[in-house]
Amino acid sequence: MKEGNVPDNIDFAASDVIARLQDEKLRELVSYVAEHSPYYRALFADLNIRAEDIQSVSDLQQLPVTTKEDLHLHNEDFFCVPRKQIIDYVTTSGTLGDPVVVALTENDLQRLAYNEARSFAVVGCTSDDVFQLMTTIDRRFMAGMAYFLGARELGAGVVRVGSGMPELQWDSVLRLKPTVLVAVPSFLVKMIDYAKEHDIDFRNSSVKKAICIGEPLRNADFLLNTLGQRIAECWPIALHTTYASTEMSTAFTECEHGVGGHQLPELIVVELLDNQHLPVADGEVGEVVITTLGVEGTPLLRYKTGDLCIAHREPCTCGRTTMRLSPVVGRKQQMIKFKGTTLYPPALYDVLHHIDGVDDYLVEVYTNELGTDAIRVCLASSRTDDKFIKVIKDRFRARLRVAPDIVFCEAAEIKRRKFPEMSRKPVVFFDLRKA
Questions:
Q1: Looking at the domain that runs over 1-329, which CATH code has it been given?
Q2: Which of 63, 89, 196, 379 is 20 to 30 A from 34 (CA-CA)?
């Protein structure tokens, strides 16, 4: 498991060694896109930028950021290879808009396998493990394919079950004895509930770890949030979160200490920027802006992910010296100004996970008659009385100082909206605000 000219144990190297490696790979990337990317070639010409002007990571500030809108409007101009060299086409999940296409070459697929094998190794997985993949591998979804390729690169076994179907998941666990689950954490709650209802001794199963995707398990202080606590209190397995996106083709995964996702420095450069695209101070929340290293098909320079995180640069207890990203605090475009309070959807989800009787939910934000943000929480519950509504609103006020409107809906209606046709992951947040 090796990527190019990367020194052994780069995760544990001195900061200057890591910096030199990133500078070298960044120079290779800038030279590559200046020659092969129609988008960046035109951008460099318009701004009179030469590839040789970018010699180090600190020089990146000479370049403008790349936005989701840029990628959407000029999608194929980001492709750096002819179509005959594109082996796989994937699309983004389209969480905040229409999905865009990311083209991968054979080398990109090998890089993807390397990335995920490295991430699994950070978790402590080895070739002795068996992974049960509880994510889709079809529907143009990069992550499911990455987990499969990574497990194979690691030399581990794989059980490809896909998403949903608690009965089949438990049948696979009991028959095939996987040691690691890759899953959306809220589905682990459904697994636990199913096991309890069907007298499955899940606490003594073969499963030792779960690598959780798509939803946060921890707060910014690294303590388990309500969802994480609910799983941990019922099921004595190690919980690890991993953060990635289709555009970055790279994962940030927690080690056993659970204090942030470790950067793979040979694969990605990370900046945390403010609204003026300037670096935030250490310990402050900033937007994650990434530059992909070693990507051949659709490389990106200073791409704004929209995710808000905190960078931690002190060495980890595990001995790694790589930068760590905090759990995602929120998404920039999902910021809500509600009754004088700034909120992000994960804070609302955390409250809802803590309330007994809430079976399912959606969150809507819309523009009210005064032209300001308003929040409506749509709930599925067997309780719909005024007393229950008061309990819910009191919980919100206690945790967030404000309470949204509460609307009860049929469980089938919420499920239909959460899992629209062709959806690869649940959609919980609906932004209905006027532009």
A1: 3.40.50.12780
A2: 89
